[in-house]
């Protein structure tokens, strides 16, 4: 949702150092459940084993295997994978709700693995908030008190926390429901309370663990739009877990695809669709309407030697679906231009090729 430039679709390398402009940096992160789990990441032979073989050989289950990625400030980073791929374990390892077995996690410059109990409490109260699938609301507390709860724990004055709770309740569209109990609200509205509660403490980072998967499809679409709107308004860094590719493509500036605990590909939606890293990703993205995801950058070609270059000019980051009309109506190929430089051209054949696959 923030403007992103095209990047390589290959997974980030563990030896890449995080740049200064990174909110979350994960390096070689492992979570292994089972006996003597510590030996798995450090033993190259065990570390390389697929999940089922490792389980047979050692009795250990590698939920998260050697993950490395960076999330930039203000980015929506989606972690996508089927059930059991390790998404929830990963997101819980970020704030040590689950203790990682090995690796490094930096959040806004703070080394999470070295943090003591007090620092972790501070981190969870001030820096990072989580929105869960099952809302996690306190059933006997009114909406306003649920939203203000984190601020109460933080020891903030009642007037301050109620004022802040009113502010975020309005932000998520729940004005008028301050005194309702959670059970009096629909699923979508309860999740709005969850969102408001996460936003109340003004954290730098929001973590979402499949927040909408229990909701009906239409409500779910509303809530996705709500996240897009909120992200635009509050501009937080977000890590969003989902098993739904269309949700990932809709929300994610970048998407990490996980399989059996490992990262298969990290990239923008266009990179996953335009250059899938392997057959697994290719199968996943097969049904995606490509014109909605690919940009002109992905389909442009070099101009032919004798081609007349007087067609209209478009930016390389324009989606194909938004360029179809301009391309088909033009009498010459559209010129794809960035900062005054001609990158390539797009004609009828290129757009129709993508639209036909959509
Ligand atoms: N405490 C635990 N002990 C042993 N194995 C665990 C534990 N927690 C999770 N696992 C296993 O780790 C793997 C990854 O689980 P995880 O819940 O992270 O996956 P997920 O992608 O979030 O799946 P879902 O979408 O179903 O929540 C699964 O095989 C799961 O059974």
Automatic annotation (TrEMBL):
<dbReference type="InterPro" id="IPR003593">
    <property type="entry name" value="AAA+_ATPase"/>
</dbReference>
<keyword id="KW-0547">Nucleotide-binding</keyword>
<dbReference type="GO" id="GO:0031460">
    <property type="term" value="P:glycine betaine transport"/>
</dbReference>
<keyword id="KW-0129">CBS domain</keyword>
<protein>
    <submittedName>
        <fullName>Glycine betaine/L-proline transport ATP binding subunit</fullName>
    </submittedName>
</protein>
<dbReference type="InterPro" id="IPR027417">
    <property type="entry name" value="P-loop_NTPase"/>
</dbReference>
<dbReference type="GO" id="GO:0005524">
    <property type="term" value="F:ATP binding"/>
</dbReference>
<keyword id="KW-0813">Transport</keyword>
<comment type="similarity">
    <text>Belongs to the ABC transporter superfamily.</text>
</comment>
<dbReference type="GO" id="GO:0016020">
    <property type="term" value="C:membrane"/>
</dbReference>
<dbReference type="GO" id="GO:0016887">
    <property type="term" value="F:ATP hydrolysis activity"/>
</dbReference>
<dbReference type="Pfam" id="PF00005">
    <property type="entry name" value="ABC_tran"/>
</dbReference>
<keyword id="KW-0067">ATP-binding</keyword>
<dbReference type="InterPro" id="IPR051921">
    <property type="entry name" value="ABC_osmolyte_uptake_ATP-bind"/>
</dbReference>
<feature type="domain" description="ABC transporter">
    <location>
        <begin position="49"/>
        <end position="285"/>
    </location>
</feature>
<dbReference type="GO" id="GO:0006970">
    <property type="term" value="P:response to osmotic stress"/>
</dbReference>
<dbReference type="InterPro" id="IPR017871">
    <property type="entry name" value="ABC_transporter-like_CS"/>
</dbReference>
<dbReference type="InterPro" id="IPR005892">
    <property type="entry name" value="Gly-betaine_transp_ATP-bd"/>
</dbReference>
<dbReference type="InterPro" id="IPR003439">
    <property type="entry name" value="ABC_transporter-like_ATP-bd"/>
</dbReference>
